[in-house]
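Session log. Operator J.P. requested a structure for one protein chain; no other inputs attached. Running the standard single-chain path with token output.
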Amino acid sequence: MRRLILVAMVMIASFGFAQQAKRAFTFEDMMALKRVGEPVPSPDGKWVAFSAVDVNLEANTRTPHIWVVPLAGGEAKQLFAGGPGEDRPRWSPDGKRLAFLSSRDGGQQVWVAEFDSAAGTMGEPKKVTNLSTEVDGQIWSPDGKYILFTSQVWPECKEDACNKKKDEERANSKVKASVFTRLFYRHWSTYFSGKRTHIFIAAADGSGAVDMTPGDHDAPPFSLGGQDMYAFSPDSQEIAFTSNIDEVEAASTNNEIFVVPVKGGTPKKISVSPGSDSTPLYSPDGKYIAWRMQERAGYESDRFRLVLYERATGKITNLTENFDRWVGSFVWAPDGKRLYFSAENKGEAPIYSVDVADGRIWERERGHNDDLAITRDGRTLLLTRMSAQVPNELFVLDLNTSISAVEGRSTITENDLRDAKELGINPPSGAKVATKLTHLNDAVLSQIAMNPIESFWFKGSEKAQVQGFIVKPPNFDQTKKYPVKFLIHGGPQGAWGDSWTYRWNAQLFAANGYVVVMINPRGSTGYGQKFIDDVNGDWGGRAYKDLMLGLDYVAKTYPWADTNNACAMGASYGGYMANWIAGNTTRFKCIVSHDGMFNTESAYGTTEEMWFNEWEFKGKPWTNRELYRKWSPHLKVTNFKTPMLVVHGQLDYRLDVSEGFQLFTTLQRLRVPSKMLYFPDEGHWVLKPQNSQLWYKTVNDWVDQWTKGGKQ
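Structure written below.
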């Protein structure tokens, strides 16, 4: 008996030592993680291809490489070693070849290599495109005869020689000036050169490339990522694509869906909504085209609905009319009877399915999911999944052919049933859950001590139910008090949740002894469209009150969170709110304002997406100046007392660097303790690895300096 007790004590001690052996998360750990991209299942159902980005901190580079993993499970392997990298793998319809993008021979082109499905190996790659303007976004036609891709070209050029000549003339010219005759002369982080993104179709060997979308418009329009904005019809005779042809692009969100025959012709517009229509996808039988639709013009944060266009009649049906959430990525079931899609909901992005015949919506899977793909036999759904503790990995979900056995959580909770009632959907059953397919980051994360994100709810302004999240530091001790990092998300139509990010990583903020608090105030996504719309024209109103009430709730509920020793931190709209906080309260020990709006009137004149400010402030500064000035932090500067770190990038054209300069100048003249971190080579986000390293160090050092509790 004594021996059993001794063995048990040794096991417990060993377990405790193993737990203690784990260390706090570091920036270097984060850079060591591989950034896994979307899954692409092979036609034979044996393999899944994907890209994963490697970060080399010393070289200051991010390089994608292509991997494959057996769908049945097993070890993933990288197909090519070294070099400039490869990205965006796409299987040929017969599964014998893999197309990908690479700059291994100069500019980025489409390459194709034979794939041995039995061995899971690649043959020698062959370059199949050779455009001087480089290419992107390749997909195969379903019959394997064509490859579609995009390229940035001069709209007046009909052939590549013309593009090459104009590019060389521009590069060699001693004059670098530009003449603008319309808005959108710059966007996000680049100035408009006169070139446009067009869609090309070439033979499978890359020959005979034809511009399918000629003219002075982008097809597809600029996108921050997500699902492709174009697709082939199942018979390979037509493509559907997205474009915005409004005269004043800077003030329009009216993306439209067009179709054009592969053999050429005039594109035909098939969408009718005054809001954005994008990401068309044909049904497997070719009867329908599905896409995401917004109803309101000029509002980029209107609800994304999933609609069906019947090709024979032109009838458009809204499948998610009563589903009060944004539809994210989606995919057709191979039998065409339903679509699967993800949608943000209360800090997660569950997977749902909708029946084409009757519009019934079913919840399929919880978690934070995206990048959906489905095997050709319809039995397996592939997806990327992340959490606040783990970045993206690939997962697989077995799909039962009978809708009566809907995949969902293994245990059905009251929350599941409440959500189903609120959204008007069928609740999940107690069936299978998705299983992890890749494990690229397990080795790094196994060494790290992290705590899961925890959710809480409280009454916000006007007694609305508001959700918040909290992350505890490693080796948490509830008998101690920890300083607080109070994070404010951007958007304002964004959200915190059980998800991973490399730019504002809660685990990294918590790692040096902080409690991280994140509130989803009015304007946040995942709580219905009214909750989102409540921030329109009210930037410093309900949302500000929600944030302050959330911090009050934390103070009352969690005695180990020292809310009297807190720093408010935000970027984009979060930066605006940080500036607004500076003028409305002195409850924080410090503030970090990254790329924030300081002067609403000057921000209008220096931004590029005019629809955003005109919607959010209900007009232009000369038509509704009162509202612009009501919510402008620069008119509250006489109240600024809190030490403030200002961060801004020179190439940020969404919120011009002048906003950061105005703020810093004001703080200095007011003699408020302040510092500015300026990046001459970054835009709205800090993306270069070493710049990111400096950003985290500067931000964390600033918080440590003023909370006095960071270095415990």
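Operator note: The longest strand covers residues 561-571.
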